[in-house]
Automatic annotation (TrEMBL):
Protein's name according to its UniProt entry: Vacuole membrane protein 1
Keyword terms, alphabetized: Membrane, Transmembrane, Transmembrane helix
Presence of keyword Protein biosynthesis: no
Source species: Oryzias latipes
TM regions (residue ranges): 46-63, 83-106, 216-232, 238-260, 281-299, 332-353
């Protein structure tokens, strides 16, 4: 019965059943909003305190005075941190189905800062317009890998913290299922339980690797979670479910995940991007394109033009217009964001269908 219900839910896609999917999406949205309103009412004293604080901050924001420079600084840093943390959550949520915002946003941001640092001979880009636009300062300074790492540390750590926060929903779901003994009818959780039941000989390589990670987390605890979170790997996908299922304490799980993802892993990824996009390596890569038989010159030309345009832009010189390479990348980002939004609509519609089924089953049991 559950298998049939799951198959029916999986038919709810915008391109298969657009009307029904949108209807269920808006119904689930209303249910979610009503749930949040109920929680706010339950914690109305805390909500009232936060509302008063927001009003006071709004008044301080609008009144002129010597405090305005501190207000503007705090506003800029808060929005900057929230932006990157939000992108990190989007990248981590959904057990691998999320929008991989490191490849689309943070990676290119670090790469552009690296290229600019080597071209300008400094990381002291004037603010504003940095980070919206990088303009070389008039005086050059000394640069190093560490100075570039320090320049992008805040946004990288905030992104890493966001990915750690994104691991919390599967943790709480698995923990609640283990404590209550109720099957959550979640596909990822059921795959995890099937993996636990299988013998090692009957598992494929990927399942054996995930089982090894699960055993490491279960036996070593904090340092096992820290080791898995610190290394860029796809095997950490089930860490939240694993820790929730085996009732690992919240701060043990979240503390290790936060340190691993926001500090250790992010410095590894930053170092990799910075070394990859340092001036001499980029120039060697572009030169290698020219060695490709027949297509070499055609492949090399757009990349060389793009680099020259970026260098001209860094020195605040007028370029020849937008490169088709940057135009193509922007369109790829737009397509991926649209696909991610559609996946959210599909997921919420399927959640509402699952909610309806559960209500019908509970009504039958009470009769």
């Amino acid at each position: 019965m559950k298998q049939r219900d799951r198959e029916e839910r999986e038919e709810l896609w915008l391109w298969k059943k657009p009307v029904l999917t949108l209807r269920y999406f808006f119904m689930e949205l209303l249910v979610t909003l009503r749930g949040w309103m109920g929680r706010l009412w339950q914690h109305r004293q805390t909500a009232l305190g936060l509302l008063i604080l927001l009003v006071l901050l709004s008044i301080a924001y609008r009144i002129e005075g010597v405090h305005q420079k501190y207000v503007r600084f705090a506003e800029k840093k808060t929005l900057w941190c929230a932006y990157w943390a939000g992108l990190g959550i989007l990248s981590s949520v959904g057990l691998g189905t999320g929008l991989h915002t490191f490849l689309l946003y943070l990676g290119p941001h670090i790469a552009s800062v690296t290229l600019a640092a080597y071209e300008c001979g400094s990381v002291d880009f004037p603010e504003p317009p940095y980070p919206d636009q990088i303009v070389c300062p008039q005086q050059e300074g000394s640069i190093s890998v560490w100075s570039i790492i320090s320049k992008v540390r805040l946004e990288a750590c905030m992104w890493g913290a966001g990915t750690a926060i994104g691991e919390l929903p599967p943790y709480f779901m698995a923990r609640a299922a283990r404590l209550s003994g109720i099957d959550p009818d979640d596909e990822d959780y059921q795959k995890f339980e099937e993996m636990l039941d299988q013998t090692e000989a009957s598992q494929d390589f990927a399942s054996q690797a995930k089982a090894a990670v699960q055993r490491l987390i279960q036996k070593v605890g904090f340092f096992g979670i820290l080791a898995c979170a610190s290394i860029p790997n796809p095997l950490f996908d089930l860490a939240g479910i694993t820790c929730g299922h085996f009732l690992v304490p919240f701060w043990t799980f979240f503390g290790a995940t936060l340190i691993g993802k926001a500090v250790i892993k992010m410095h590894i990824q930053k170092l990799f991007v910075i070394i990859t996009f340092s001036r001499h390596i980029v120039e060697q890569m572009v030169s290698l394109f020219g060695a490709v038989p027949v297509l070499g010159a055609a492949l090399q030309k757009p990349f060389r033009e793009y680099l020259e345009a970026q260098k001209a832009k860094l020195h605040h010189l007028a370029g020849e217009g937008e490169s088709w390479l940057s135009w193509l990348f922007e369109k790829v980002v737009v397509v991926m964001v649209c696909f991610f939004v559609c996946s959210i609509v599909n997921s919420m519609a399927q959640s509402y269908a699952k909610r309806r089924r559960q209500e019908k089953y509970s009504q039958k049991k009470t009769k």
